[in-house]
Amino acid sequence: MSLSKATPSNKQKGLQVTKQAALLFFPLFGLLTLVMLWFYHDARTSSLTYLENQNQEILSTLRQHVELSLNHSQDDLDLALKIVENNIRTDINLNEISQAFYRIVTSREAYIKQLRFIGIDGYELVRVDNAGGKVVNVSGDFLQNKVDRYYVQQGLKLRQGQVYQSPLDLNVEFGAVEYPYRPMIRYVAPVFDSRAIMRGLVVLNVNAGAMLEELNAIGTSSTAEVWLLNRDGYWVYDRRQDREWGFMFNDNSLSLPMSHPDVWSLLITTTTEDYQFNLKSDQLGIISAQDWQQTPRLLNYGHQEITMPWFGVMYLSPQAIQDITANLQQRYFTLLLISCIPTLSLSIGFAFLFSRRNDLTEKLIQLNEMREADKKFHTALDASPTPMIMVDQEQNIVLANREALKLFEYSSAEAMNIPLTSLIPNQYKKRHVHLVEEFQQSPEERRMAPIREVLAVTKTGKEVAVEIGLNPVETSDGVITLASITDITQRKQLESQLAKSNRTMMLAINTAMIGVWTWSVGEKSMMWDDRMYKIYDYSQRPLKPVTYQEWRDRIHPEDIARLDRVFERALRSNDSQQYEFRLYTKDGLVRWVKGGVVREMHINQTRLVGINIDVTEERMSHQSIATINRELERRVTQRTDELQQANRELEAFSYAVSHDLRTPLRGIDGFSNLLMKSLGDKVDGQNKEYLNRIRTAAQRMGDLIDDMLTLSRITRADVVRKRVDLSALGKNIINHWREIDPDRQVEFITPKQLYANADSALLRIVLNNLLSNAWKFTSNSERPVIELGSINKPEGDVFFVKDNGAGFDMEYVGKLFGAFQRLHTNSEFPGNGIGLATVQRVIEKHGGRVWAEGVVDQGATIYFTLPK
Amino acid sequence: MNKTILLVEDNPDDQLLTKAALEMNNILNEVVIAENGVEALDFLNGQGKWEGRNTDELPALVLLDLNMPKMGGFDVLKHIRANPRTELLPVVILTTSKEDRDLVDSYKNGANSYVKKPVDFDEFTNAAKQLGIYWLMVNESPL
User: Fold this and answer.
1) Do A227 and A160 have their domain in common?
2) Which of A606-610, A716-720, A733-737, B105-109 bottoms out in mean pLDDT, i.e. has the lowest?
3) Which residue, of A586, A629, B67, B141, has the greatest Cβ tally within 10 A?
4) Do A217 and A142 belong to one domain?
5) Region A60-69: what's the mean pLDDT?
């Protein structure tokens, strides 16, 4: 494709092509006509030759037929002859002959006209006539003398075994030709007796009309006329009956020698070897002829005497030939007309080719120059990284560069001359057509057409987003559009990704309340977003953007130097810098801000892009939490100290109690004792009782103090858990009581081992209390039993100490574990009411539970748990 | 001759009761009473009240209370054990305290026995008897 402006216009080109096509077409058509004519002639000739051959064959068939008929007639004659010969061997009995003849004629009534026996004097002896199907045996009165007739004369000359066959002619009755014509052949055979003396003649009249009718039937199957001519050239059979039988009327004009002497001359020169011929001439038509007399006999019954003295002729008149060939002519003419169309298209095609070739030839030099330019243009176009296609006015692609082919997945050949719409998805085709029309109406205005984003479709049906820049190029062929295409599928994807990440970022910026700023280094003013203004306490965006200096003025003086250092670092590297600083609000309050800044190289300018987040609240809450924590810690320490102090005081108190309260008691007891001893007998019973009471009271108080100290020690004690065998502990305690109180018989039931995870010292206190109580409260029982055991429960083991002693009223179970609470008087069971309180304290320190069940005078059970 | 028993005890009641308990068990050794720790050391070192006393005559047994004014029993015990002259002296802690801590501390500081003074005088008498028999008759003193 070249963009030559010298290319002739389409109209001129069309005229030229038409001329070229006409120049090509007419000679071609002439040639074609000649060829057709030749073909036609050839076909006609072969068709006529075929006809001639067919005619010859028909003639042969006719001849065979005639031969067969003649043979049959001779058979009839032979039969009649034999009957007569047999009859005359003894005595002649005309009656018998007559009857036999009658039977022969009847059996062959279609052929035999008359069968007679004629005496040598010429008189008819027997005569059987067939008058149109009615066979009559003619009696003596109607028999005639036929001695003067030629066939009798001829018969009388015959020798034994000879037969006379008359020429084919018409029957003559009473000296005139019988009408309607009755073609007849007469056979005459002489009858000789055993002495070889002629006794008469058998005459058979054969109705040749039947034979000729059969010929007619056969002959009419052909388009040609069938003639049968006798040896003199008269017609004995012709479809045109007016030419028949001329010789019967001595009219020699109705003979072939007169009408067609040339044909006749050919007929009479035939020989046995060359008995048939075909004659063809434009005036005459076609004549196929056979001389049947010369023809070899096909059927041989021994009738050597059979003669067929006729010429068989088939005649096709020029008119008949015309009729036959007309069809052929018509066929070839149609063929010619049909072949006109491809010839015409071929001519036009060649004309186009020629015209193009002519174009090329004319512009060969110009083209050579242009080809270089073209090549460069193509190379440049192909090398262009931008896909480009050129579209002619019919919107067909006339050029596509390599990138375009790659983009649309076409091969170079495939892309040529396909419509541009092939590259447009179906749903956009309508719109595209509209756009094209618009563009074509005003291409100049759109010389640099706005870039459009459209969807295109590749050969494999893949849709690609493209941007198309349309550029009309005017050539003498019209306006060609150069479309540069940019595959923006990837860009689209990037754009959508970018939009997505932008949205995400905006969400982040908005949610985190991040202010964004940009500052082109050295510029006076900065660019802030709305959030920035909010952070810096502006009620709304000011009309003039904030300046760098204004911003700096808002920074806390202590932070400004650090901020400058951060910005310097940011300007030197690609890494982002984080920082925190204080700013003043318009009211002069301090606000904490967290910032980040990064360098951005923008063409030949460096910019700083940064974010600010107001972290004042965060910071404040951090501070207050720290304060609260410190305060809490301080308080905890204080409380701990106080607690430790209280503990120390409690310990000191306990210590004092153990020392200082007991010492006076010891004095009371000791001196009471000493008094009693020193007074000896001087003290009476009453006073002795008083002194004892003093001592008992002192001792009880001592016990009380001991128990109270134990209780308070337990409160302070740490629980150190390990595996303890409660059973072993229990046995130990019971044994101790048995030693102290050997008079009592108490049964003690406990498993071999009873393990618990507990503080061994504390558990000893528990068991000591419980078992001692049990020992104590069973003192009035008849058969005292104490049991230490456990019950397995899903939530853990439940230990118990059970006795069958005094028991208690469940109504007072609530008082059981209170300190100094007692359910029995001291005189009943001694005690101070601290034991179970101590037990409860120990169990609670283990995280367990203790409870009691009891029935008065039946016993009590104390349960406790020791969770692991 | 019978050696003395040094009773270091600030409470006069206890002084009297201890002496009575010893006498009731026929432990007739002379009982020297120190009112407090300082006096106890004075006696052992021949100082103060006991200026010029022959310090070679060590008591057969020291009965030492823990809670005393001026100088407590533990300090006395430490001094006794620190002095080579008195370090082998049998010292029995005789106290009202039932605190485990006191018991452990006493043995740690080199006490030979720890006896709790019971409220019941009969029990106290019994304890005094046991002490006397053991430390004055059964036990072989290195001194």
Assistant:
1) no
2) A716-720
3) B67
4) no
5) 84
Would A699 be classed as within a structural domain?
A: no
Averaged pLDDT of chain B: 87
HSE-up of B25 (CA within 13 Å, CB side)? Answer: 23
Domain-ending residue, one of A614, A649, A668: A614
Q: SS3 of A393, please?
A: coil
Residues A860 and A744 in one domain: yes
Q: Measured between alpha carbons, how far is A557 from A561 in angstroms, rounded to an integer? A: 8
Q: Are A540 and A462 found together in one domain? A: no
Note the pLDDT of residue A749.
93
Report the relative pairing of strands A785-793 and A747-749 from DSSP bridges.
Answer: parallel
Q: Are residues A187 and A226 located together in one domain of the fold?
A: no
Please report, for residues A518, A526, A545, A574, the alpha-carbon distance to residue A523 in angstroms, rounded to integers and kept in the order given. 11, 7, 12, 21
Q: Which of residues 74-93 of B touch A (CB under 8 A)?
A: none
Contacts of A660 in chain B (CB under 8 A): 96
Do both A138 and A264 map to the same domain? Answer: no
A289 falls within a domain: yes
**Greatest pairwise CA separation for chain A in angstroms:** 240
Question: Which tens digit of pLDDT belongs to each residue from A779-818?
Answer: 888 899 999 999 998 888 999 999 998 888 888 887 777 7
B118/A706 CB distance under 8 A: no
Would you say residue A266 lies in a domain?
yes
* Residues of chain A contacting B120 with CB distance shorter than 8 Å: 669, 695, 699, 702
Nearest Cβ partner for A666 among B24, B97, B119: B119
ipTM of the complex: 0.80
Q: CATH number, domain at A399?
A: 3.30.450.20
What domains appear along chain B, each with residue ranges and CATH number?
5-138 (3.40.50.2300)
User: For A711-757, how does the pLDDT look when each residue is reduced to its tens digit (9 = 90+)?
Assistant: 777 877 788 889 999 999 999 999 999 998 888 999 999 999 999 99
Q: Is residue A26 part of a domain?
A: no
The answer to whether B123 faces chain A, any CB pair under 8 Å, is no
Radius of gyration, CA atoms only, chain B: 14
Judge: B14–A667 Cβ closer than 8 Å, yes or no. Answer: yes
**A698 contacts B119? CB cut-off 8 A:** yes
Domain span at residue A449 reads: 385-492
- Chain A nearest C-alpha distance from B2 (Å): 26
Last residue of a domain, one of A581, A614, A647: A614
Q: Which residue has the tokens 């020291």?
A: B62
SS3 of residue A190 by DSSP? strand
State how far the Cα of A852 lies from the Cα of A833, in Å rounded to an integer: 15
- Domain with A764 in it: what CATH number? 3.30.565.10
State how far the Cα of B55 lies from the Cα of A85, in Å rounded to an integer: 222
Residue B19's contacts (CB-CB under 8 Å, 6 or more residues apart) are B7, B31
**Chain A residues touching residue B99 (CB < 8 angstroms):** 654-655, 658
Question: The tokens of A363 are what?
Answer: 């512009």
Which residues of chain B make contact with A666, given a CB cutoff of 8 A? 13-14, 17, 96, 117-119, 121, 124
From chain B, the residues in CB contact with A701 under 8 A are: 119
Nearest CA-CA partner of A63 in A221, A289, A257, A268? A289
Check whether residue A486 and residue A586 sit in a common domain: no
A359-390 pLDDT tens trace = 667 767 776 776 677 677 778 777 788 888 88
In a shared domain, residues A453 and A582: no
**How many domains is chain A built from?**
5
